[in-house]
Structures are given as C-alpha cells and as structure tokens.
Design the sequence.
C-alpha cells in the first residue's frame, strides 16, 4: 500500500512566522506568554508549552505587568494594545501581515461608513480571534455574518462595505455577495472586497487533486481550526473516504483495509511533524 503526505500541506507563512518568533524568544528567555493558542492545533501548542510557552486569555492579561506577551497570527483588537501599554507589557506582535493589512482596510472602511451612516459587514465566524480583531477596528460595531444566506442583520437601505475573514471559503463569500446584490435596491452603495487569503483559497484546489489521487484520505487538523473544518468538508465532497483526526491515536485500520493508497493532508495550522507521526502509525 502506498502512503503519501501531501507536499502542499503544512503551515501557511503567517503561522510559520508566529511560531518562529515564539521559538526565537523561548530559546533566548526560556518562557513567553502567548495570548490564546498560537495555532489551532493542540499537539503543536503542547510541544511549545514544553519549551516554556504559557498560553493566557484576555482575563489573565489584565493581571500581568512588565513582561512580554506574544500576539499570534490572528491579530488582536486595539483594546489589547491599550491594555498592554497601560500595564508596561511588551507585545511581541506576530500578527500575519495579511491580517494586519485587512485590519487597516476595515478601519478605513469603518471611518468612511461613519460619514454616511453606513455599515461594515464582516463574513466570518463570530467569536473567532481574527474576527474579534477585525471588529475591534470598528469599535465592535461591525455586523458579523457567518453564512451566505444570513442577510437579516443587514440594512439594505444604507451603504455597505463587505469584507471576509481570511480563512473563509471564497465560494461561499461569492455566494453571499450575490445574495446581497440580489436584495439591494437600485443605486445602492455596496462594495465587497476580496479579502480571503489566497493561501486558503488555493489550498482547496490543490487538495482536490490530492484527494482524487488516493483511495483514502486522512485529514489532520485541530478540533478548533475553522480552516481545518472547511478543508475537511471540501475533501469529503471530492473523496468520500476522508477521515478527520486531530492526532495519530485516532486512526482506525478499518479505514484502509481495502485501499491501495492512503493520503495524509492537513490544514494550514497542521504541523508537518504530526503528519509524519500519522504516517508512521499507519505503517
Ligand atoms: S491563512 Fe493567510 S492570512 Fe491567515 S495566517 Fe495564514 S497566511 Fe496569514
């Protein structure tokens, strides 16, 4: 039986950068606070905890003083920067440059919409760290829409600027845009920006080819990875024999009992070493 790991699987450059920054600090100082899980993959978080990474939440941030705290690739709202400044906390900012640029665009859109009583709409997962950071650019006033048919919160009589969380499906975003356009009155002021990360959008197409090339696909992703959930669902449509696991212990040999080939792939938050571990457990 052939077992192969998807050459295109593994971290996106935003996550590579954040983990690189964390490891550099840990090698120098032996410990570092990180605001939220550095990546949506518990196995990788555990590895970094062993090296001295201490994961904290926003409540715990309030009790820290005079220390270093890492901001992960998802980014943070302006309130986090204010809290850090007032408490003498040095932020090690590993926000992905693409997310940072999107925050800036949304901030500009929000300022423009304030002048004309318009609305900023963000297509994303409510409560997701990136969405919280994006909404923070709008003083928390953006309308968050999580499905293409969720139009009810939008006021079509007012100007609209629409943005997407970077890790959402581009197809679903296009569907949302089409649904909004169909509901708009004539001469409506509506602009939609394509802000899905190319790394995520292109990944789906690459995965499709990989999923077709094997009899069984093992998809490795953290349970809390929205990118992982989306890519897994995408794979399942192409390859019905797709199985989602978050660690190598969850493998079931029945899955490949009659297969000639097994493929292993993962989300943009799945470390390469974890996919190697899965491969070794199948052998
Ligand atoms: S998926 Fe794209 S936007 Fe998100 S962290 Fe990775 S590179 Fe950055």
Sequence:
């Amino acid at each position: 039986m052939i077992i192969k790991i998807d050459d295109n699987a593994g971290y996106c450059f935003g996550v590579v950068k954040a983990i690189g920054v964390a490891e550099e600090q840990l090698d120098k100082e032996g410990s570092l606070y990180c605001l939220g899980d550095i990546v949506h993959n518990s196995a990788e978080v555990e590895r970094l905890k062993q090296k001295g990474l201490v994961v904290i939440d926003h409540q715990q941030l309030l009790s820290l003083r005079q220390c270093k705290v890492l901001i992960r690739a998802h980014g943070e709202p302006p309130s986090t920067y204010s809290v850090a400044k007032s408490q003498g906390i040095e932020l090690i900012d590993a926000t992905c440059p693409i997310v940072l640029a999107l925050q800036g665009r949304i901030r500009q859109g929000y300022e423009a919409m304030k002048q004309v009583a318009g609305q900023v709409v963000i297509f994303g997962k409510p409560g997701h760290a990136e969405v919280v950071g994006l909404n923070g650019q709008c003083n928390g006033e953006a309308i968050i829409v999580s499905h293409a048919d969720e139009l009810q919160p939008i006021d079509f009589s007012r100007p609209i600027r629409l943005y997407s969380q970077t890790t959402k499906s581009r197809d679903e975003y296009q569907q949302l845009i089409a649904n909004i356009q169909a509901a708009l009155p004539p001469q409506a002021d509506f602009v939609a920006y394509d802000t899905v990360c190319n790394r995520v959008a292109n990944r789906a197409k690459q995965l499709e080819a990989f999923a077709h090339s094997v009899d069984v696909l093992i998809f490795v992703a953290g349970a809390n990875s929205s990118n992982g959930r989306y890519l897994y669902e995408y794979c399942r449509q192409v390859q019905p024999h797709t199985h989602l696991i978050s660690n190598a212990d969850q493998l079931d040999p029945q899955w490949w009992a009659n297969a000639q080939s097994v493929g292993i792939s993962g989300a943009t938050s799945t470390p390469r070493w974890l996919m190697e571990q899965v491969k070794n457990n199948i052998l």
